[in-house]
Amino acid sequence: MLFKKSPEKFWDLISSMYAASPVSDSVSYQSKIQTIKSYLSPGDVVLDIGCGTGTQCDDLAESVKQVIGVDISSKLLAIAEQRKAERNIENVEFIQTSLFDDQFNPESFNLVMTFYILHFFEDIDEFFTRVYELLKPDGLYIYELPCLGEKNLFMARLLRFAGYLGFVPLINMLTYK
Predict the structure, then answer these.
(1) C-alpha closest to that of 55 among 27, 35, 84, 98
(2) What's the per-residue H, E or C state across 20-36?
(3) Structural domains for the chain
């Protein structure tokens, strides 16, 4: 199956495996969540782009008015909905869409966050333009990303080539420079 033109199929395919994998460093994860919460207020609205199974959305929900999680994978979002229901969370909404959906109005969000997805966007400038358009004037953008080009150059090039062939979604090799 080729995923170059339909990365959502890739994420749908691996959704169960992705959802079953535990957080590799729970102490760091909890620290990250507490740090993010320190920037939030009860009236804030948060957008999580590429929310996957919704873990971060659910973990931030008690600190804000609303969290909207978006992802391209319907299967990841089904898992997110199930987990939200299990935790009885009512102020989180999951939507199968992209960052560029017109339903998101400019200056609507106090916080936009992305975790490990920036390298999947072909046009980084377009991505940042849209993120900053969605942020309120005093809004905050928080992200984490793998700088794959810094880790293992051979593996990075192999992943990039696999993306060009369509075996995985297209991946940009971001670096620290």
Answers:
(1) 84
(2) HCCCCCHHHHHHHHHHH
(3) 7-17+44-165 (3.40.50.150)
pLDDT class for 55, splitting at 50, 70, 90?
Answer: very high
CA angle 116, 118, 119 (to 5 degrees): 90
Tell me the C-alpha distance between 160 and 166, whole Å.
Answer: 10
Structure tokens that stand for 21 in this block: 């994998």
Measured CA distances, 67 to 37, 70, 90, 95, 161 (Å): 12, 10, 10, 11, 36
Query: How far apart, in whole angstroms, are the C-alpha atoms of residue 56 and residue 129?
Result: 23
Residue 44: the pLDDT is 98
What whole-number distance in Å separates Cα of residue 36 and Cα of residue 119?
A: 22
Identify the sign of the CA torsion 153, 157, 159, 163: positive
- CA 151/CA 171 separation, integer angstroms: 14
Contact by Cβ (8 Å): 111, 139: yes
Distance, CA of 137 to CA of 171 (rounded, Å): 31
Q: How far apart are CA 23 and CA 126, in angstroms?
A: 30
Supply 166's token pair. Answer: 């369509």
Q: Mean pLDDT for the chain?
A: 83
Question: Mean pLDDT over residues 153-166, rounded?
Answer: 61
